[in-house]
Amino acid sequence: MSANTGALWEHYENLEQQHEANVLGMWVFLATELLIFGALFTGYAAYRAQGDYSASFEHASSKLNLGIGAVNTVVLLTSSLTMALAVRAARLGRRRALVVLLLLTALFGTVFMGFKAVEYYEDYEKKLVPGLAFDPEEWRHGPVKPGPVQLFLMFYYVMTGLHAVHLTLGIAIMLTLAVMAGRGSFSPRWYAPVDIWGLYWHFVDVVWIFLLPLLYLIGTHGKF
Amino acid sequence: MSIITSPFRPQGIALAPAPGPGRRPVHYLNAAYGVRSWLLTTDHKRIALLYLVSLTLMFIIGGLAATLIRLDLLTPSNKMMHADTYNKMFSAHGIIMIFFFLVAAIPAVFGNFFLPMMIGARDLAFPRLNLASWYVYVAGAVMILWVIFGGGVDTGWTFYTPYSSKSSHTQVLPTLVAAVLAGFSSVFTALNLIVTTHRLRAPGMTWFRLPLFVWSMYATSFIVLLATPVLAMALILVGVERACGVGIFDPALGGDPVLFQHLFWFYSHPAVYIMVLPAMGVVSEIIPCFARKNVFGYGFIAFSSIGIAVVGFLVWAHHMFVAGISVYAALIFSLLSYLVAVPSAIKVFNWTATLYRGSVSLQTPMLCCLGFIGLFTMGGLTGLFLAALAVDVHVHDTYFVIAHFHFIMVGGTVMAYMGALHYWWPKMTGRMYPEGLGRIAAVIIFVGFILTFLPQFVLGYLGMPRRYHFYAPEFQVLNVLSTAGASILAVGYALPLTYLLWSLRWGEKAGPNPWNATGLEWQTPSPPPPHNFAETPVVTCGPYEYTLQEEAASVG
Amino acid sequence: MFPVPLFPENASTTADHVDRLYFFLLALSGYVALMIALLLIYFSVRYRRRADGPRPPRIEGALRLEIVWSVVPLLIFLGIFAWGAHGYFVLTQPPDDAIEIYVVGKQWMWKVQHPGGQREINELHVPVNQPVKLILTSEDVVHSFFVPAFRNKVDVLPNRYVSTWFHATKPGRYHIFCSQYCGTNHSGMVGEVVVMEQADYDEWLGGHSEGSLALEGRKLFLKLQCVTCHSADSRARAPVLEDLYGRDVPLRDGRTVRANEDYIRESILDPPAKVVAGFEPIMPTYKGQVNEDEMIQLIEFIKNLRAGQTPTRTEETPPPAVGAPAPKKETPR
Question: Is this complex scored with an ipTM above 0.85?
Answer without folding.
Answer: yes
